[in-house]
Write a structure and sequence with these properties.
The structure is a single chain. The protein has one domain. It contains two helices and five strands. It has helices spanning 3-15, 79-94, and strands at residues 18-22, 28-39, 42-49, 59-65, 71-75. Strands 1-2-3-4-5 form a five-stranded antiparallel β-sheet, covered by helices on one side. A hairpin with a 5-residue loop joins β4 and β5.
Length: 107
């Protein structure tokens, strides 16, 4: 790959906010940050998995400070909290798309 192509790929990655998360099994996965939402000293993050995402779904996590004072992302265990934040992200991320009753793009 030419240096020019490498630089172009690097610039595209920099434009996208990409983070790597490690799961409880030690496996790493890359995610694109789609958006963030702050509420009452908690930051929620919508992440789009860059691999193995056949269903085109995104993940919502929230920040928490661990015992050593480091910020980490955790799952949202409370169903009501998750539903509320998911609705906010749906409005934030997808409000520009107007679908008619048939599910077709109305724009």
């Amino acid at each position: 790959m030419s240096d020019e192509k490498k630089n172009e790929n690097l610039e595209n990655e920099e434009e996208q906010d990409i983070i790597t998360l490690t799961d409880e099994n030690g496996e790493e996965s890359d995610y694109e940050v789609m958006g963030t939402y702050d509420e009452e000293n908690v930051t929620y993050v919508a992440l789009y998995p860059l691999k193995n995402n056949e269903k085109e779904e995104y993940v919502i996590l929230k920040t928490q400070i661990d015992d050593s004072g480091e910020e980490m992302l955790i799952t949202i265990d409370d169903d009501d909290e998750f539903d509320r934040v998911a609705d906010i992200f749906e409005d934030m991320l997808f409000d520009e798309i107007d679908y008619d009753e048939d599910g077709k793009n109305g724009k």
